[in-house]
Amino acid sequence: MLDELFRNNLSWVERITAKEPDFFEKLAQQQSPEFLWIGCADSRVPANEIMGLLPGEVFVHRNVANLVIHTDMNCLSVLQYAVEVLKVKHILVTGHYGCGGIQSALDNRELGLIDNWLRHIKDIYRLYEKEFEGLDEEQKLNLLCELNVVEQVTNVCHTTIVQSAWKRGQAVSVHGFIFSIRDGILRDMGVNISTLEELAPIYRMQRKSDLLRR
């Protein structure tokens, strides 16, 4: 099985270099992606392939259920590097229908350490609990997958990293997408934030100089 992986790698290299002989030479020079993808670790949801992008065109962070947690230094480090060093223009928070992590949160199954991670999904369910009334299990799962994307978009925007970028005048937008494994379609959730003014006032951090002028 592992030998096959290396054979597949060589075939992939041959296909790319046949189309563009200097592809890897240029790729080695630098990466300058316009997109940061924050997605689920699910093996069925590969960022580059879904969007038809080549290596070097999208910076990627993935975890179970595509969560953006304010104490997750891994996610925050990726976000800071993408925004401040790579200067990405678009942050794509991308969930998917049928997410196993979200299903586990709904089922209340005890899985171990990851149960602590999935508490954040349960918090979203609690916030929108009335919207789940009357829905069957599949509808509940689909809705929670969508609401999770919405909440994680706002979590990205609440970070000091993104807000500092906006204050500097840096053009960066945060978008919510959702992917369907059943048909392969990537859908825009219509959640797009690109300015500090679009956030609820309680989340808008102000410079000390602004506070002193009050």
Note the topology.
Blueprint lengths: L1 H18 L3 H7 L5 E6 L6 H5 L6 E6 L9 H13 L4 E7 L3 H8 L6 H14 L9 H21 L2 H8 L5 E7 L6 E8 L14 H5 L2
Can you tag this structure with a few keywords?
single chain, 214 residues, alpha/beta, five-stranded mixed sheet, 9 helices
What does this structure look like?
The protein is built from nine helices and five strands. A five-stranded mixed β-sheet has the order 2-1-3-4-5. Strand 1, helix 3 and strand 2 form a beta-alpha-beta unit. Helix 5 crosses helix 6. The protein is globular and about 55 Å long.
Spans with pLDDT under 50 lasting ≥5 residues?
none
Mean pLDDT: 94
Form type: globular
Helical/strand content category: alpha/beta
Q: Please list the strands of the largest sheet in the order they lie side by side.
A: 2-1-3-4-5
**Element order: H for helix, E for strand:** HHEHEHEHHHHEEH
State the distance separating the first and last CA atoms.
Answer: 66 Å
